[in-house]
């Protein structure tokens, strides 16, 4: 299971988890909107409903190759009778269901695949279901935005690896100690910082003592794209044997040209807005 995320629906906090690479929503939290003190009873009442059992069975047949149809038929026959009761744990154990996951403990609860959770929310409150869908969609949009940012950051990291490998081969003589090696790397990192930002990492830290992170963490989308390109070019210049001063001059000119183009690019502009 991944880290639990929270969304707020009509002042009710609802947990969302990724289970088996699918989104599962806490129906215990959904139940609290209607009956905060007896959510387990509420879920059991929903499960004993014949329509619910049929819905769950069809969902499992569509999504779960290990679902037990014979056991399901036995449950379906009894569903709706006054004497019929069913808990999430019993449903899972008897049928091998995967659409509902129940976990005990302080941070536990009953989670259901989003398809099933929306169905339960509809049974609890149509209004709550609509707001739940809206907030869930908002969460997924935020995750997509974060994914886009992570891709940009990873691109810069990958290119930095290419860049540092070139430094190791071409600039680091044999028998350097760790301190000397770190100085070479820091110097090359600042070549890029000077070319793109006009200052070294230390100069930025001195000017921004209250900020966390580093100068590159403050970069916008256009600067990150430009930085990735500069890292590749610097690696090429190092292989060609250009002196640091010459490389810095070239990289600065390229950075100016690329930033002018990137800042006018519509696609990069949209990334910047995010």
Automatic annotation (TrEMBL):
InterPro entries for this protein:
KilA/APSES_HTH (IPR018004), KilA_N (IPR017880)
Identify the domain of life: Bacteria
Q: State the SMART domains in the record.
A: KilA-N
The cross-references to PROSITE patterns, in alphabetical order and at most eight, read: KILA_N
Question: What are the KilA-N domain coordinates in residue numbering?
Answer: 3-139
Pfam families recorded for this chain?
A: KilA-N
**Record protein name field:** KilA-N domain-containing protein
- Could you tell me which species this protein originates from? Candidatus Kentrum sp. FW
């Amino acid at each position: 299971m991944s880290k639990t995320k929270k969304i707020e629906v009509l002042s009710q906090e609802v947990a969302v988890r990724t289970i088996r690479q699918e989104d599962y929503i806490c129906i215990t939290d959904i139940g609290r909107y209607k009956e905060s003190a007896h959510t387990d009873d509420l879920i059991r009442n929903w499960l004993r409903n014949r329509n619910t059992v049929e819905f769950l069975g069809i969902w499992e047949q569509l999504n779960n190759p290990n679902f037990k149809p014979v056991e399901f038929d036995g449950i379906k026959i009894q569903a709706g009778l006054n004497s019929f009761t069913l808990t999430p744990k019993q449903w899972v154990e008897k049928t091998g269901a995967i659409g509902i996951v129940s976990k005990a403990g302080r941070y536990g609860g009953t989670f259901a695949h989003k398809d099933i959770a929306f169905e339960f929310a509809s049974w609890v409150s149509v209004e709550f279901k609509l707001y739940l869908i809206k907030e869930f969609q908002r969460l997924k949009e935020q995750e997509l935005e974060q994914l886009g940012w992570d891709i940009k950051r990873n691109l810069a990291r990958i290119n930095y690896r290419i860049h540092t490998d070139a430094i190791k081969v071409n600039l680091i003589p044999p028998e350097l100690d760790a301190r000397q090696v770190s100085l070479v790397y820091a110097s090359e990192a600042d070549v890029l910082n000077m070319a793109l930002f006009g200052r070294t990492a230390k100069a930025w830290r001195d000017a921004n003592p209250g900020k966390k992170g580093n100068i590159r963490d403050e970069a916008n989308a256009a600067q990150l794209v430009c930085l990735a390109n500069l890292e590749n070019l610097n690696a090429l210049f190092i292989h060609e044997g250009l002196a640091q001063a010459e490389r810095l001059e070239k990289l600065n000119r390229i950075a100016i040209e690329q930033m002018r183009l990137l800042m006018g690019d519509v696609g990069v502009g949209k990334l910047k807005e995010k």
